[in-house]
Amino acid sequence: MTSLVYLQGYSDKVQQQAKSLIDEDRLGAWLLNKYPSPHTVTTEKSLYSYVMTLKKQFLKKSSPLSKIAYDGKIGKVHQALGLHTYVSRVQGGKLKSKNELRVGTIFKAAPEPMLKMIVVHELAHLKEKEHNKAFYNLCCHMEPNYHQLELDTRLFLTYLDTNENPY
């Protein structure tokens, strides 16, 4: 029986539906039916371009990003899907800050909507540091289907815990 660790914050009804899909061995087919193909953003260069396009469209006046990359340590170490870091350093008499955005390498072979959800989530941290109402409103502004995509991404991760990536 697969543990529903990625779905712990969801209602009992949602968890029961997920458990039913898993028990009947239909979760993989359900994911492939809803998201039939993976994205093509598989290199660091294409990820940079993808992220910057979204940033320019929705967050023109936000802080610049000094690094955008896929990171193989995310998920295992941080228990996260993506990671936004904000580093402040004193250089001379000035305080310098850098923003970095990292996406778990597991999402190199995932559907594009799931990648977008993760990028939108991490970009929202440029404006809102905490997971509050304003943060989620910003996520929904950038991706109106944000909450459904987050659930689907968690179902994808649940599937990957005991199966190979279907993409």
Question: What labels would you give this structure?
Answer:
alpha+beta; single chain; 3-stranded mixed beta sheet; 167 residues; 6 helices
Detailed description of the structure:
With 167 residues, the chain is α+β, with helices and mostly antiparallel strands. It has six helices and three strands, in the order H-H-H-E-E-E-H-H-H.
Topology:
Elements: H1 12-23, H2 27-34, H3 44-58, E1 65-71, E2 82-91, E3 94-104, H4 112-124, H5 133-142, H6 146-160
Parallel strand pairs: 1-3
Antiparallel strand pairs: 2-3
Q: What is the mean pLDDT?
A: 89
Could you tell me how far the N terminus lies from the C terminus, measured between alpha carbons in angstroms? 23 Å
Q: Count the helices. How many?
A: 6
Described by the principal axes of the CA atoms, the overall outline is globular
Order of helices and strands: HHHEEEHHH
Number of strand elements: 3
Strand content: 15-25%
Which residue ranges are poorly predicted, with pLDDT under 50 across at least 5 consecutive positions? Answer: none
Helix content: 40-55%
Our Rg estimate from Cα atoms comes to 17 Å
**What's the oligomerization state?**
single chain
Largest sheet: 3 strands, mixed
Helix/strand/pairing category: alpha+beta
The strand line-up of the biggest sheet is 1-3-2
